[in-house]
Design brief:
- The termini are far apart.
- The protein has a five-stranded antiparallel beta sheet.
- Helix 1 packs across helix 3.
- The chain is an alpha+beta fold and 172 residues long.
- The relative contact order is 0.14.
- The longest helix has 39 residues.
């Protein structure tokens, strides 16, 4: 790869990473061709982009990102690295965890999820437990609706009792 190709690849990676609010770095070495193909299919099904990248180019791309400190990722860029980009914060973690039931790879190197940085494979369970933006909004709406539903229900059930009580008192 000549200097011009490298600079184009760095610009491509910088653009891709800076526009992604969620990305994971994983070690997919030692996966057979068949396992790699299965991982790629699973990522495609989960709407996760998977791309094997060169460590030096990713490091330069991370250094080019303005306004975000990506230095915790620099030490992780050793060995084979795959870049996983998703719209859902926990989807790549779910794919990695599911895939590791049958294999010891991929190993999570690090993740960037909505301004939070997670480093190390021990963070996989934390990342799997993260809820997506849509799930959180749904839970908040449910919580907000719950008291209103209780009040309306109480008024509806008590309304017939109060009306009956007023009618009875009026008849006396």
């Amino acid at each position: 790869m000549n200097k011009d190709e490298k600079s184009k690849q760095i610009a491509y990676l910088t653009d891709k990473i800076s526009n992604a609010s969620i990305f994971y770095l994983a070690d997919t070495s030692e996966l057979s061709a068949d396992e790699t193909s299965k991982l790629r299919r699973r990522c495609f099904k989960g709407e996760v982009s998977l791309e094997v990248v060169k460590n030096t180019l990713v490091k330069k791309a991370l250094e080019n990102i303005e306004g975000k400190d990506m230095s915790p990722f620099y030490d992780l860029l050793k060995g084979q690295t795959s870049l996983m980009i998703s719209e859902k914060g926990n989807e790549p973690a779910k794919i990695i965890k599911e895939f590791r039931k049958k294999s010891d790879r991929p190993i999570l190197k690090g993740a960037f999820v909505e301004e939070a940085i997670f480093v190390g494979d021990d963070q996989i369970d934390t990342l799997v437990a993260l809820k997506s933006k849509e799930e959180l909004i749904g839970e908040i709406i449910t919580l907000l609706q719950s008291p209103a539903k209780n009040v309306i229900s109480a008024l509806n059930s008590g309304g017939s009792t109060i009306a009956g009580l007023v009618k009875t008192l009026g008849e006396r």
